[in-house]
Write a structure and sequence with these properties.
A 7-stranded mixed beta sheet has the order 3-2-8-4-5-6-7, sandwiched between helices. It is built from 17 helices and 15 strands. By secondary structure, the protein is an alpha/beta fold. This is M28 family peptidase.
Length: about 575
């Protein structure tokens, strides 16, 4: 850490951020009018700190849960309905069928039978035969991949039994943000409800006895004006390039660990960076999103759409801030980062917290990662968390936020979930990470690491395909690209040219690695495998009969896309080397 970075980190205090955490701990931010009050509170604090802020007011599509219940055998069970569930305020009754979920799939967004159900069901045909015309009961949280599969199988409803005493809020739509006309067919057409573990066990007995259940859900749906505060901190020399730092401020109930602590982190970083803007070599935009919880990332999606061309031209990285500063969160063993930013992230964390455990993970299709189709290098989603050993000692199940505290997405996410010391540390980590993108003359992205990731992915797919597909063209194109970027990163290339190439490469490589749809659209909200255009290769060896021919056709088309993209990326690099 250099002297400038140390001076900047030394300016961080908890005065403004902790006051916001305490205020938000008394301020629900779920209903649309509550959310807008939260935005006004953020804006007022920014203005009091002398930081200019713009309040955008888009109309975004929300589906806000109002009430839910599950009834069976004369008993009514406490329940919640995920956002975007089909409203059935009069109730929907059908026979109940139980399928045991894969216990490792609590946080899975994979739309895959094996990932969701382990060895419980072997095929789509078996699933359809068991579920058609019935309400499915299984373990887990509100899950868009699960809900869409059950609907596809002809099921008429889903009950997800959460793993503990609490009932968690969630979402069940695969639509990312406000739907467009092409998205509307994927709007959920069945209701979903979540119950706690004990209720789930009681309902399993009903299913075993051949009984029925009734799901009742009520939601408020439609376009709603929601405020989105954005701070724009310019570069000292007027450079139009910027880093986007962001997180959601709407929450379930008061949502302290998810995400009042993140809102406070953004507030303090805005204060410090604005006070030191004369020393910034690249700009920073800091955004607080509405519509994360009840619009499936509708706020960040709106921004990605409304400012798409500016983001394409000038955004060098996006950094998500969700659930920092929570109690017991001393570990960084599962930090989301793309390959090109991994070393940057590791160094920033260990420079602030040298004794912390660090490990990285491929970003999931979740958490306001609304910019992958544009092609922006990205890191962070969830922040620090409790060590796995501590989670096991406490008997906690796996959740997607709150530093691993199982208060996540419940009414229990209150002030005791936040930790002052953890918050101070995490603010400094986020600030240092931002500085390490804004300040270097050459953008600190290791594209060789991305090329090596691609080479490993292609090799795995080639091995899995066996003799059913020839991935030699992909292997060769990847090797040529890797050699070119290695020469770029070690060669004597002017910084401005290297930076332009790094950003242009991200516009090719990020969509190729994380998306299936065209640029400037938004993929469905379930996790894509690495290099999704080639991923069918992993399934070829077990494809039955005629289906193998269809899969080979998909493989051929996907490989054409991949090789063409690799050639375009290689040409960009070679032109910079000339």
């Amino acid at each position: 850490m250099d002297a400038f970075e140390r001076r900047m980190l030394d300016q961080v205090t908890l005065d403004a951020p902790w006051e916001l955490v305490e205020t938000f701990a008394r301020t629900p931010r779920c209903m649309p009018e509550e959310v807008n009050r939260g935005a006004a509170m953020i804006a007022a604090r920014l203005e009091a700190l002398g930081v200019p802020v713009t309040l955008h007011r888009p109309e975004i599509y929300l589906a806000v849960p109002l009430s839910a219940s599950v009834s069976a055998g004369g008993v009514t069970y406490r329940a919640k309905t995920p956002t975007s569930s089909l409203p059935v305020p009069q109730g929907r009754t059908a026979p109940l069928v139980y399928l045991s979920a894969n216990p490792k799939a609590l946080r899975s967004y994979a739309r895959d039978i094996t990932a969701l159900f382990g060895g419980t069901i072997a095929s789509e045909e078996e699933a359809r035969a068991k579920v058609q015309g019935k309400i499915l009961l299984t373990e887990g949280f509100g899950n868009p991949a699960l809900a869409s599969l059950v609907e596809e199988w002809g099921g008429v409803g889903v009950i997800a039994a959460n793993p503990g005493v609490d009932v968690h809020w969630g979402t069940c739509t695969t639509i990312w943000g406000t739907p467009d006309l092409d998205d509307l067919p994927r709007k959920p057409k069945i209701p979903m409800a979540t119950v706690n573990r004990d209720s789930g066990l009681a309902l399993r007995a009903v299913a075993a006895a051949g009984g029925s259940a009734t799901i009742t859900t009520d939601l408020m749906e439609g376009f709603v004006e929601q405020a989105i505060p954005v701070v724009e901190i310019p570069a000292a020399d007027g450079s139009p390039d910027f880093v986007l730092l962001h997180g959601h401020y709407d929450s379930w109930d008061v949502g302290v660990g998810d995400n009042a602590t993140g809102n406070a982190t953004l507030l303090e970083i805005a204060r410090v960076l604005w006070a030191n803007r004369a020393q910034l070599k690249r700009g920073v935009r800091i955004a607080w999103w509405a519509g994360h919880s009840t619009g499936r990332y509708a706020g960040s999606t709106w921004y990605a759409d409304a400012f798409a061309l500016e983001l394409e031209a000038h955004c060098v990285a996006q950094i998500n801030c969700d659930s920092p500063g929570c109690r017991w969160a001393t570990s960084f063993h599962e930090i989301a980062t793309m390959s090109e930013t991994r070393d940057l992230v590791r160094r920033a964390i260990l420079d602030v917290a040298p004794d912390a455990e660090f490990g990285s993970a491929r970003p999931m299709q979740a958490g306001d990662y609304s910019f992958s189709n544009i092609g922006i290098s990205s890191f962070f989603m969830l922040s620090s968390t409790m060590p796995e050993t501590l989670r096991a000692e406490k008997g906690y199940y796996d959740v997607s936020g709150c530093g691993g505290n199982i208060a996540w997405h419940t009414e229990n996410d209150t002030i005791e979930i936040a930790d002052r010391d953890m918050l101070l540390r995490d603010i400094r980590i986020y600030l240092l990470s931002v500085l390490r993108v804004t300040q270097p003359e050459v953008l600190p992205f290791d594209v060789v690491a991305t090329a090596e990731e691609f080479a490993g992915t292609v090799a795995r797919y080639a091995a899995a395909a066996g003799g059913q597909a020839d991935l030699a063209p992909s292997i060769a194109a990847t090797a040529a690209f890797r050699d070119a970027v290695a020469r770029l990163q070690t060669g004597d290339v002017p910084p401005a040219r290297r930076n332009a190439v790094a950003v242009a490469l991200a516009r090719i490589l990020v969509p190729l690695n994380f998306t299936r749809g065209p640029r400037f659209t938004h993929d469905p909200a379930f996790t894509a495998p690495p290099l999704p255009c080639l991923a069918v290769a992993a399934d070829l060896a077990r494809m039955p009969g005629e289906k193998l021919g269809f899969a080979r056709t998909q493989m051929l088309r996907g490989q054409n896309r991949y090789v063409s993209a690799m050639r375009a990326a290689t040409r960009l690099v070679e032109e910079a080397l000339d």
